[in-house]
Write a structure and sequence with these properties.
The chain is α+β, with helices and mostly antiparallel strands and 117 residues long. The chain contains three helices and seven strands, in the order ββαββαββαβ.
């Protein structure tokens, strides 16, 4: 598995596709920090990326796990809201998804700012 990297500046989709190829084949796990508008990618587990962001000062409540499917870029299937780190009853998120539509939109906006074709 490649090392976890934090995206603070936009990267080309090719870089995300390479991470997928080197890792799971068709997907990249990522954790979006909605507070700082950055994203960690490349870990074997969402928890790996979450841990790195927390070490850098992120707030737990701002971190949400997603999967990116580079071959699906530009379609609804490109971004999947599915991670065990998203299960947070205290934040009224009781599923592996991101239940709040406004929060999903915010995550999608950040991913859109950080990944381009």
């Amino acid at each position: 598995m490649p090392d976890v990297v934090i995206l603070r500046e936009p990267v080309r989709l090719d870089a995300i596709a390479k991470l997928a190829e080197d890792g799971f084949g068709d997907l990249v796990k990522a954790v979006v920090d909605v507070g700082r508008r950055v994203m960690a990618v490349g870990g074997e587990l969402h928890a790996d990326e979450e841990a790195l962001l927390l070490m850098e000062g992120a707030r737990q409540a701002d971190l949400w796990g997603i999967n990116l499917y580079p071959a699906e870029y530009g379609t609804p299937g490109w971004l999947e809201y599915d991670s065990m780190i998203n299960v947070r009853p205290a934040q009224e998120n009781r599923s592996r998804s991101v239940d709040d539509a406004a929060l999903r939109d915010q995550i999608a906006d950040i991913v859109g700012e950080l990944v381009f074709r």
